[in-house]
């Protein structure tokens, strides 16, 4: 195991649950100091406590709603130093209705959370990383950003946007020595479906019925690998499915 992540500082959005929390645990175990962002500050504080005690890293919590871009800008401005790594992980789906039945408020929420906040934090990081000549931005996309599916329109639009934005940023950053990466998971069993179906746990459980979905830990392990590459190596995208899934359409349920 390299010591490349030791003593580095990473910002992780959406660290209060799922993939973000799993990544925070993995990076802390490698000696990375952390800035953890999400709305549920109590959960972040409990996680930060665990990581400080367990691994002796600095872990600072930021109870921020990413819909508030001014709060995000203030967070960046007030950081004690420019971090080494920014992970834009926070994201959500709202609803799975066809376009003719969709609630535009759901679209707005997804576009603001998954796209506008990710773009703004990437921009803030890119400015400082380019000036310094180094840094790593890792964005969490989805297979929904590669393949559309009926009922996915709003979420698809947001994750296709993440894909396009990340690829364009990658092209712009090569002259600055800044790494830009993406990971595009298939089904991961987290709070994601419960959020998508607005607290309907029964409906959320049907998403994972008869399939061994990816865990947050599975995805975080790959993200750690991406972040741990030597400085001259930059992984642009990893598409990862459960073995029983091949696309949003192709799911083999036992
Ligand atoms: P999750 O368990 O629901 O976690 C989502 C995280 O995002 C939470 O920490 C949540 O924190 C944060 N978040 C959501 N809205 C926010 C806001 N307005 N402001 C600040 N933080 C916000 O879901 P997950 O599966 O780990 O999702 C992580 C990423 O993976 C997302 O980008 C998702 O689109 C992507 N992804 C998930 C799957 C899947 O099947 N689960 C598949 C492909 C891609 P608070 O609620 O505390 O704010």
Outline:
The chain has helices at 18-29, 41-55, 69-77, 104-132, 153-173, 192-196, 201-207, 216-227; strands spanning 9-13, 33-38, 59-63, 85-88, 135-140, 178-185, 237-240. The protein has 254 residues and is an alpha/beta fold. The chain has one domain: Rossmann fold, CATH 3.40.50.720.
Per-chain topology:
Layout: E1 9-13, H1 18-29, E2 33-38, H2 41-55, E3 59-63, H3 69-77, E4 85-88, H4 104-132, E5 135-140, H5 153-173, E6 178-185, H6 192-196, H7 201-207, H8 216-227, E7 237-240
Parallel strand pairs: 1-2, 1-4, 2-3, 4-5, 5-6, 6-7
Helix pairs in contact: 1-2, 1-8, 3-4, 4-5
Description:
With 254 residues, the protein is of the alpha/beta class. The chain has a single domain (9-243), classed as Rossmann fold (3-Layer(aba) Sandwich), CATH 3.40.50.720. It contains eight helices and seven strands, in the order βαβαβαβαβαβαααβ. The protein has helices spanning 18-29, 41-55, 69-77, 104-132, 153-173, 192-196, 201-207, 216-227; strands spanning 9-13, 33-38, 59-63, 85-88, 135-140, 178-185, 237-240. A seven-stranded parallel sheet has the order 3-2-1-4-5-6-7, with helices on both faces. Helix 1 (18-29) packs parallel to helix 2, helix 3 runs parallel beside helix 4 (104-132) and helix 4 runs parallel beside helix 5. The N and C termini lie far apart (37 Å). The chain binds NADP nicotinamide-adenine-dinucleotide phosphate (NAP). The site of NADP nicotinamide-adenine-dinucleotide phosphate has 28 residues, from helix 1 and helix 6.
């Amino acid at each position: 195991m390299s010591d490349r992540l030791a003593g580095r500082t990473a910002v992780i959005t959406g660290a209060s649950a799922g993939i973000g929390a799993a990544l925070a645990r993995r990076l802390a175990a490698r000696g990375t100091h952390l800035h953890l962002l999400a709305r549920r500050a109590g959960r972040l504080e409990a996680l930060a406590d665990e990581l400080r005690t367990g691994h002796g890293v600095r872990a600072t919590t930021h109870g921020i709603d990413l819909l508030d871009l001014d709060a995000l800008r203030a967070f960046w401005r007030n950081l004690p130093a420019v971090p080494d790594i920014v992970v834009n992980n926070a994201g959500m789906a709202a609803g799975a209705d066809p376009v003719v039945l969709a609630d535009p408020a759901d679209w707005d929420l997804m576009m603001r959370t998954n796209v506008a906040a990710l773009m703004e934090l990437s921009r803030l990081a890119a400015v400082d990383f380019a000036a310094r000549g180094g840094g790593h931005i890792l964005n969490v996309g989805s297979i929904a950003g590669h393949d559309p599916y009926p009922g996915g329109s709003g979420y698809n639009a947001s994750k296709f946007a993440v894909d396009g934005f990340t690829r364009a940023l990658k092209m712009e950053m090569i002259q600055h020595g800044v790494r830009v990466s993406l990971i595009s998971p298939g089904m991961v069993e987290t709070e994601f479906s419960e959020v998508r179906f607005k607290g309907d746990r029964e409906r959320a459980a049907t998403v994972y019925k008869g399939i061994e979905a990816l865990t947050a830990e599975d995805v975080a392990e790959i993200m750690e690998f991406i972040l741990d590459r030597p400085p001259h190596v930059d992984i642009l995208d990893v598409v990862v499915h459960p073995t029983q899934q091949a696309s949003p359409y192709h799911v083999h349920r036992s």
